[in-house]
Amino acid sequence: MSTATIDLxxxxxxxxxxxxxxxxxxxxxxxxxGPPLAAADRVQAGGRWMYQQRGWLAxxxxxxxxxxxxxxxxxxxxxxxxxxxxxRLQPWLVAAGLKAPPSVRPxxxxxxxxx
Length: 115
Description:
Blueprint: H1 3-29, H2 34-52, H3 54-67, H4 69-95
């Protein structure tokens, strides 16, 4: 074996050892992300549940509107305020890399109707 081959093999072995050490360090450091990611999973599951039960939820909203209009108005105004805040934060979240930028859909002309 030539010295160049031995040097390459040694360098490869050092790189593999360094790579393993970096993977171990990353695994140790990523443990702190477990609870926030679990909370995000719970929120996402709650959103899916709400979407699946949207009929019942809409019925509940109608009942609250009829029986307690003042309370409903207060809840709606709070919801409107929260929605505006989230909309205002979205560009910041995109700039920080915490949210994907909105996709731009090409404009499609309306289909021609038969006369």
